[in-house]
Input
Amino acid sequence: MTKDEEHLRLLSIFHFVVAGMTALFALFPIIHLVVGLAIVSGALPSPEGDEVPGFVGWLFVVFSGTWIILGLAFAAMIALGGRALRRRQHYTFCLVVAGLACLVMPFGTVLCVFTIIVLMRDSVKEMFGRPVQSAGTAT
Output
């Protein structure tokens, strides 16, 4: 196994790890979702005569549900980037996912930097089937 193959294999594994951590953190607002559903359904006991308005429950449900869905979609995108790295496909997608992984601080930022460094190598571009331009030619 060459150095580039080993680097791509490790980056793929780390993409899956960061995707798992992102998915875990995306699920934190489940408690807010449950509280919101409890408010909306009336299952949450209210103190003496002070009723919680229904729109507050819906705010909890909408914001937490949106956060969970977007977070899980982001985690899936990072995992797909790891899969593409492993298969050496979709070079541009891998670069975009690496750039967006910077949002997952601090591990995603480190992953982003190393992924971009590895993907910029001419030998790695060839592994993805990308044409490599010499320094003297421009297109």
Summary: Residues 2 and 29 are 43 Å apart (CA to CA). The chain has a mean pLDDT of 91. Residues 54-87 form the longest helix (34 residues). The chain is about 70% helix and 0% strand.
